[in-house]
Amino acid sequence: MEEYQEADKKQEEKKAAKELKSVTIRFDTTDDDKEPSTKVEISIDKPNSTHLAQGKIENASFAPGSSNLFELVIADKDKKEDLRKCFFTVKITVGGQEDPWKFDLTIQANYTDGTSFKQPMTKRGIALSEKNPKTTFSLSELVP
Q1: Looking at the DSSP assignment, which residues form a beta bridge with residue 42?
Q2: What residues form DSSP beta bridges with 109?
Q3: Which of 110, 29, 104, 43 is CA-nearest to residue 77?
Q4: pTM of whole model > 0.90?
Q5: Could you give the CA distance from residue 51 to residue 75 in angstroms, rounded to a whole number?
Q6: What are the boundaries of each domain within the chain?
Q7: Architecture of domain 19-141 in CATH?
Q8: Burial code of 76-108, b = ≥16 C-beta within 10 A, e = fewer?
Q9: DSSP 132
Q10: Which of 4, 17, 24, 143 would be a feasible disulfide site paired with 113, CB 3.0-4.6 Å?
């Protein structure tokens, strides 16, 4: 009986070792800044549209040449290999004046077993504005 309990415990530990622990997003603003009145919504969604991780940024300005880190709230602790199937969305809501924002985006995923992706996932040359407030892309484009 002890052998079965020990085997069950090891299986549970192995399963937990591959769960998503944290997702950090870095916005590297290029030549067009983001005003504090512009709100940012970020989400990583599964193919069935369920949120895996999400976050909001309000009342923050991002100057040209600045790097800004944000940790997303984990909604579902998926397995490492499942991240490739997910979609990343960043959306802005301009508050007041027109506010085009140009940036590079870096995503770092960390897991409960202490591992992370070998290199951060980066998407360059994103441009959002009142006329083009949202971008969505598959993480399979970025996952090494």
Answers
A1: 55, 90
A2: 23
A3: 110
A4: no
A5: 6
A6: 19-141
A7: Sandwich (2.60)
A8: eebebeebeebbbebebebeeeebbbbbebbbb
A9: S
A10: 17
pLDDT average, residue stretch 112-133: 84
User: Residue 51: phi, psi to the nearest 5?
Assistant: -70, 130
Beta bridge pairs of residue 33: none
Tokens (6 digits) for 77: 């602790």
**Residue whose token pair is 């052998």:** 3
Chain segment 33-92, per-residue pLDDT in tens: 899 999 999 999 988 888 889 999 999 999 999 999 999 999 877 666 677 788 999 999
Quote the pLDDT of residue 144. Answer: 55
Amino acid at 41: E
Residue 70: the pLDDT is: 95
- DSSP letter string, 48-112: TS-EEEEEEE-S--B-TT-EEEEEPEES---BGGGGGG-EEEEEEE--SS---EEEEEEEEEEET
Residue 71 and residue 103: Cα distance in Å, rounded? 17
Contact assessment for residue 109 and residue 84, using Cβ atoms and an 8 Å cutoff: no
